[in-house]
Amino acid sequence: MAPQNLLYLRSNFLCGSRCWMFQNSADILFKSVSCRLFGVKCGNEHSENELLKNLLVMGVDVDMAKKRQPGVFNRTGVNEQDLKMFLLSKGASKEVIASIISRYPRAITRTPENLSKRWDLWRRIMASDLEIVNILERSPESFFRSNNNLNLENNIKFLYSVGLTRKCLCRLLTNAPRTFSNSLHLNKQMVEFLQEVCLSLGHSDPIDFVRKIIFKNPFILIQSTKRIKANIKFLQSTFNLNNEELLVLICGPGAEILDLSNDHAKRNYTNIKEKLFSLGCTEEEVRKFVLSYPDVIFLGEKKFNDKIDCLIEEQISILQIIETPRILDSSISTLKSRIKELVNAGYNLSTSNITLLSWSQKRYKAKLEKLNIG
């Protein structure tokens, strides 16, 4: 019996051991598979907590950052401390750094080497580190959106090569930094298109034309050639412009209209015509009004109509409005409050100059003070 009992115990032990080994092997296998399938949670849980802690200490709005770019928090190799030290060395405050990361958390994925190289490239255009910090504070995406420094370098070289000055590139980087994230091919395509437009309109200096139009409208390089072509055609046909008149318009006050959706431009212009016709204006008066102030085409139907109605209700004639269209730059609330103040000061808007309705606040207040003293 003893040998049989020993044999029985041995078989039970071996069976139990095999079962235990199988169970634990399965657990280990499942755990490793689940880690691969579901990302970095298993091995990276501590580092993610550490990242959140660091960001909170830095004053970052973590909730905002997670809403904007949640994927950043699942990545390995983030460099929030390196980014902080780099930006501090360039003159950024802790508050500005926190704001940058809150609004564009992908910034923490850039390496110190990448940051340093990109900063040096921007300094080929900007005069100081502080100027770059100010752009980052306003638009962090402009600097951190791309890490392709070679593309940035090639774009800078190309834009210099087509005659753009440092001042013009500075304006581009300040107002339309996405230009430098464009592929070199896209920027070349737009510049070549603008040069073709210049020659087709009889201008003999395409470099000068491109420089003028980009300086007037820094956003033009991030538009499509199709949109620009449609808007040029719209301006020429709608206002019956010859080539020379069209050149003056698109190199000057009408340059920004080239950005506008063509359907939007047509719809707004149709509304302007209908509104002014209803107030007794002639076709020529409408034409003169829009060409003297092309920005009016940016005003949507309701906004334009409401501003005109507001001025008419205050006894300002449509002829006065046509002769001083820049008063439409002011908001309706500003127009109403200024009209009230001027009337109380004894200023007759029906017979006097109304340009002060669009003056800067400082200039307007000085004029109002003189009127009240008088």
From TrEMBL:
| One biological process term in Gene Ontology | termination of mitochondrial transcription
Gene3D superfamilies per the UniProt record, alphabetical: Transcription termination factor 3, mitochondrial
Chief subcellular site? mitochondrion
Q: Does the keyword Repeat apply?
A: yes
Whether Repeat counts among this entry's keywords is yes
Provide the GO MF annotations for this entry. DNA binding
Provide the alphabetized UniProt keywords: DNA-binding, Mitochondrion, Phosphoprotein, Repeat, Transcription, Transcription regulation, Transcription termination, Transit peptide
Indicate where this protein resides in the cell: Mitochondrion
Similarity comment: family membership: Belongs to the mTERF family.
**General function of this protein:** Transcription termination factor. Binds to a 28 bp region within the tRNA(Leu(uur)) gene at a position immediately adjacent to and downstream of the 16S rRNA gene; this region comprises a tridecamer sequence critical for directing accurate termination. Binds DNA along the major grove and promotes DNA bending and partial unwinding. Promotes base flipping. Transcription termination activity appears to be polarized with highest specificity for transcripts initiated on the light strand.
Query: What is the protein's name according to its record?
Result: Mitochondrial transcription termination factor 1
